Amino acid sequence: MYNTFSFSSLLQITNASLTNTAGSLLNGLKIRLDQSWYICGNLALNEGANPRRPLNISPEATEYRVLFQAALLIAAEQQSKQMVTTIGFPNSIYRLYKDQARDLLTSGYQIVWDPGVYGGETSQPLNVIVDQVEVLPEIVSCMIALRKGTPGINGAFLH
Q1: What is the structure's pLDDT at 114?
Q2: Which pLDDT tens digit goes with each residue over 100-151?
Q3: Per-residue pLDDT tens over the stretch 41-100
Q4: Are the CB atoms for 86 and 132 separated by under 8 Å?
Q5: What is the pLDDT of residues 11-38, one digit of tens each?
Q6: What is the Cα 116 distance to its own chain's centre?
């Protein structure tokens, strides 16, 4: 069985403190990349002034890197074994960015985040090593999550 976690791909740059504004890491994603802080997912939706969802961005774009690190942070909190990451791209840009994404994402990351958003203590940067990356069309990633994660759908689910 796979563990799947979903969060909105909304994000916004912020300088706000946001201490104790979320109940969990999944709902309180605040990531620092380079010299800027970004809020992601539900936190951006609930606390952001103008969150946005980047569309068809390159794996080298800041927005993509922030969202990828947010996903790694959530996965790293849950995993105790080898980490395999699956990234989905819309079919229209899948072939364009497939190799670039795999090359960029197959490495180690140092993630800086703010656990104070969900009541946590000050943290050290988290070092995450991605053992394997699979770059798939978005629809394939969604089908794998539906079939192998919760709810574990069997048979036809698209009519």
Answers
A1: 94
A2: 888 888 877 899 999 999 988 877 898 888 877 888 888 887 777 777 776 6
A3: 999 999 999 888 888 788 888 998 998 899 889 888 776 666 666 677 788 888 899 998
A4: no
A5: 999 998 899 999 999 999 999 999 999 9
A6: 19
**The two structure tokens encoding residue 94:** 């899948």
What's the one-letter identity of residue 47? E
Query: What is the CA angle 9-145-142, rounded to 5?
Result: 55
Residue 114's CB is within 10 A of a number of other CB atoms, namely 20
Alpha-carbon distance of 159 to 72, in angstroms, equals 33
Q: Which residues pair with 133 in a beta bridge?
A: 85
Q: What is the DSSP letter of 125?
A: P
Q: Label the pairing between strands 29-33 and 108-113.
A: antiparallel
Residue 34 in contact with residue 40, Cβ under 8 Å? Answer: no
Residue 131 corresponds to which tokens in the numbers above? 């053992």
SS3 52: strand
Q: Please name the amino acid found at residue 72.
A: L
Task: Name every residue whose Cβ is closer than 8 Å to that of residue 41 and which is 6 or more positions away in sequence.
Answer: 7, 8, 9, 10, 11, 26, 27, 29, 70
